[in-house]
Amino acid sequence: MKKILFPTDFSEVANNAFVYALKLADAIGAEIITLHVYELPQLDYMNVPVYLLDIYEVTELSNFENYKHHIPVLRSLAEEFNLEHIKISNVLENGNLIDNIHKIATDDHIDYIVMGTKGVESFAATFLGSVTEKVMHHSKTTVLAIPKECSFEPIKSILFITKYKSSDQLQLQKVIELAYIFHSHIDCLYVAAFDKLDERLITDWQQAVNYEDIAFHNIPSEDVEGGILNFIDSNNIDMLAMALHQKGFFEGLFHISLSKKLAFHVTIPILAMHE
After folding, report:
1. What is the per-residue pLDDT across 92-103, written as a single tens digit (0 to 9) for each?
2. 157-273: which CATH architecture?
């Protein structure tokens, strides 16, 4: 059985992302492992050793009680969407969140990590260097990031960002696997500022890809990130997929002009895959 790891802080952002985790689990026949991580306080003032054990015990008890309180909320969400049949196990850990995610993803052979991200109004400021971004770049597991503003809709159209390099085809196959499950259309897109794309590359991809509902695009534009965002907006894209070898992509995609931030809101899931 496939496995989905769902790190949560029990916030509204996380609960919203949990719906996507449930839907994905139902579609691919997976179980969900929820993970809540807390850190013990770092205390360095005088006389703390006398009370340190008590402080740690109170902290652990408080986190455990909070954990017990919120687990039923997740199960209620599953029932609300008629997905209570999905197997859900819950893990509470102490320590560093990134380290715990990486350990469980590795030890339990996790197939997907599903996480919530913060709101549109602060997306550019918080996404870079955020927990989600760090997980994407430190874990070899495919990550599905869900912005707070996402409201679950069937994944009918997936946009895959590519430069039509042979190294991107492995990631495209992962996208195709999901597209088969969701019956989705796939758009492959390369937006280039100055590089002229050899059209034979697209021809080679068309011949190599074994999926009927797919289209290949090459858009010349000096505003690469704006071209991508406009394509998403104009084509009713439901999910953005990319390979993480594309250095600087997040920096470019979310540090855009204020007018574009106002004109376009990032409200679709982002599927991030390693080579």
Report:
1. 888 888 899 999
2. 3-Layer(aba) Sandwich (3.40)
